[in-house]
């Protein structure tokens, strides 16, 4: 079956100058995939430079663009023909299997939730990125900002969604799920975290208990669960620390002629380290919990990085992550899932 991904070509800091070349690269490297490019048709065609992909590439015109600083509420209300909204509608209507956007995060979350609706048994969506570990691996972390205040039940749902995502994409049926906490001991944490720990322990997931901040990057868990307040602060702290270290290394290597000579000698090691820690290869956070696949790319993504986000959306659809989440939630809360399905009907 051909997996079709809708691309919000106008979203992000660079728009079609990045999204369209990234789409072309994806089609060249993934012969089984198909893309729908959504946005201002003239600008998209100018970047394409001709029809090279036949039925695997389709353009859908959208007359509006959601600004990066635009209010999510106003975007939802006033931009019904935006490239973001039209691309998400394609997923809802079954014309696409996933959508990718580098646009306004709040608008993407609000519009995706409004248009696609929530999965049965899931109360809130969660933002789930992929992050690197010290040993060359990776882990999934959620939530990273969609939900500031969470109940223990919400954290359980995040654990289920993250575990199903890891199982599908990494082909590991029993991924390790950890709960981000201030200590590994069961007595640590606030009441919500303690209650969530009990729920996760009884869920049937491969729950390994609490994980501290440094444990995430040691690869102690394949999925790290937290509320959006903690997760977003942790992510921004990580990004800040990396920027600080990178800047410090550059300053020290450029301090004098001897330092510059040392930098030249160490260049192969530095380049290998940069490649290993290149954040671009982890681009594409999945908005989990929706009745459709929505992936958020970094707004400043370049062609390579945006291509990674497209591939991630493709893989999530191809590995039927949504179906896995529904099945697992049905095992944990069959009554709640059934009631939610009846209400949706």
Quickly describe the structure:
The chain has 345 residues and is α/β, with parallel strands linked by helices. Helices cover 50% and strands 16% of the residues.
Total beta strand runs: 12
Largest sheet: 7 strands, mixed
Order of helices and strands: EHEHEHHEHEEEHEHEHEHHEEHHH
In terms of per-residue confidence, which ranges show pLDDT below 50 for 5 or more consecutive residues? none
Our measurement of the CA-to-CA distance between the termini, rounded to an integer number of angstroms, reads 27 Å
Instruction: Summarize the amount of helix as a percent range.
Output: 40-55%
Beta percentage is 15-25%
Annotation field: number of helices = 13
Major β-sheet strand ordering = 3-2-1-4-12-11-5
Outline type: globular
Mean pLDDT: 90
Structural class: alpha/beta
What report would you give on this structure?
With 345 residues, this protein is α/β, with parallel strands linked by helices. The protein has helices at 16-29, 41-48, 72-78, 83-92, 105-116, 152-170, 191-201, 213-217, 228-253, 257-276, 303-318, 321-332, 334-344, and strands at residues 3-8, 33-39, 57-61, 98-101, 126-128, 130-132, 138-142, 176-180, 206-211, 223-225, 285-288, 293-296. A hairpin with a 5-residue loop joins strand 6 and strand 7 (138-142). It is globular and about 60 Å long.
List the helices and strands and how they pair.
Layout: E1 3-8, H1 16-29, E2 33-39, H2 41-48, E3 57-61, H3 72-78, H4 83-92, E4 98-101, H5 105-116, E5 126-128, E6 130-132, E7 138-142, H6 152-170, E8 176-180, H7 191-201, E9 206-211, H8 213-217, E10 223-225, H9 228-253, H10 257-276, E11 285-288, E12 293-296, H11 303-318, H12 321-332, H13 334-344
Parallel strand pairs: 1-2, 1-4, 2-3, 4-12, 7-10, 8-9, 8-10
Antiparallel strand pairs: 5-11, 6-7, 11-12
């Amino acid at each position: 079956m051909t997996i079709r991904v809708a691309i919000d070509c106008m979203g992000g800091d660079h728009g079609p100058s990045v999204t369209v070349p990234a789409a072309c690269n994806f089609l060249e490297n993934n012969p089984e995939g198909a893309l729908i490019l959504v946005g201002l048709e003239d600008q998209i065609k100018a970047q394409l430079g001709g029809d090279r992909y036949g039925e695997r590439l389709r353009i859908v015109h959208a007359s509006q663009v959601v600004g990066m600083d635009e209010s999510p509420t106003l975007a939802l209300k006033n931009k019904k023909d935006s490239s973001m909204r039209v691309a998400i509608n394609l997923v809802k209507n079954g014309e696409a299997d996933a959508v990718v956007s580098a646009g306004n995060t709040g608008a993407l979350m609000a519009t995706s939730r409004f248009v696609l609706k929530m999965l049965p048994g899931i109360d809130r969506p969660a933002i789930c990125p992929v992050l690197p570990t010290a040993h060359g691996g990776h882990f999934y972390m959620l939530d990273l900002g969609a939900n500031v205040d969470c109940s223990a039940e919400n954290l359980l749902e995040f654990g289920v969604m993250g575990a199903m995502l890891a199982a599908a994409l990494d082909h590991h049926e029993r991924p390790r799920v950890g709960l981000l906490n201030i200590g590994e001991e069961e007595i640590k944490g606030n009441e919500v975290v303690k209650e969530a720990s009990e729920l996760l322990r009884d869920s049937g997931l491969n729950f390994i208990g609490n994980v501290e901040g440094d444990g995430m990057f040691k690869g102690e868990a394949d999925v790290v669960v937290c509320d959006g307040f903690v997760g977003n602060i942790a992510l921004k702290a990580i990004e800040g620390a990396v920027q600080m270290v990178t800047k410090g290394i550059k300053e020290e290597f450029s301090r004098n002629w001897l330092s510059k000579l040392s930098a030249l000698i160490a260049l192969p090691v530095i380049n290998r380290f940069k490649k290993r820690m290149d954040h671009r290869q982890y681009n594409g956070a999945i908005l989990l919990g929706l009745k459709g696949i929505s992936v958020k790319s970094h707004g400043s993504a370049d062609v390579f990085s945006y291509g990674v986000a497209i591939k991630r959306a493709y893989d999530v659809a191809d590995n039927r992550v949504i179906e896995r989440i529904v099945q697992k939630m049905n095992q944990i809360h069959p009554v709640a899932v059934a009631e939610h399905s009846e209400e949706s009907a």
